[in-house]
Amino acid sequence: MAITAVSTVEMVRKKFPQAIVETVEFRGEQTIELKPEHLVAVCSYLHKNLQYTFLSTVTAVDWFERVPRYDVVYHLLSIPHRSELRLKVRVGERGVGANLSQSPSVPTVVGVWPTANWYEREVYDLFGITFVGHPDLRRILMPMDWTTHPLRKDYPLSGFDLPEPHWGGQVPYDTDPGVGSQTLRTPESRELNESRSKISHNQEPGTEKR
Question: Which of 167, 171, 173 minimizes the C-alpha distance to 193?
């Protein structure tokens, strides 16, 4: 029997009726929104029974004012059946007044698709969403001692206003400075000079002029 995205949605609906929040069809694409606690079971079924053996990406979206705040999104591909499917789970509190000491979390799917390892690390790094059971959950793009998450909607667009000298005007804090108030470059702050045509050796020691 040929497996399509549409037939996959129906099979998951019958197998895991308690797991599904909603299903969406948009421009020929199929999306299943799941309750987080059922994510691993559904993913294992898709992998073992329906041959969705390729996890193309894991990403997230910050809907700052929505409750739950985040979508964690999984794009799957069944190569034998040429079928693509999207899974979503929603996690997190409201952006304003949220408890910043508790990170939103979902179960890891590394046990289903080993390639989820680095994808989940990227989402953790940039959004602050933790993946319970991940074998090595640490930052992958930002410095290890960075305290905030740049793809959250409350991250200042122009970074933090910090004392010089610092590359690009951003360095890790020892404590979370809090985010939400955008900072702008001023005549007194570091000039935006990406080409490095003018160099201050006090600000950028060891930098050669291009």
Answer: 167
CA–CA separation, 101 vs 76, rounded Å?
A: 32
* CATH number, domain 5-143: 3.30.460.80
CA separation, residue 118 to residues 11, 56, 63, 131, 136 (Å): 29, 12, 23, 11, 9
Identify residue 55 by its one-letter amino acid code.
Answer: L
Q: For the CA atoms of 70, 18, 86, 149, what is the dihedral angle to 10 degrees?
A: 20
**Tokens representing 3?**
């497996």
pTM: 0.75
Domain positions in the chain: 5-143, 156-204
**Model confidence pLDDT, tens digit, residues 166-178:** 444 444 444 455 5
| pLDDT tens sequence across 96-124 | 555 555 789 999 999 999 999 999 999 99
Positive or negative: CA dihedral 39, 41, 42, 45:
positive
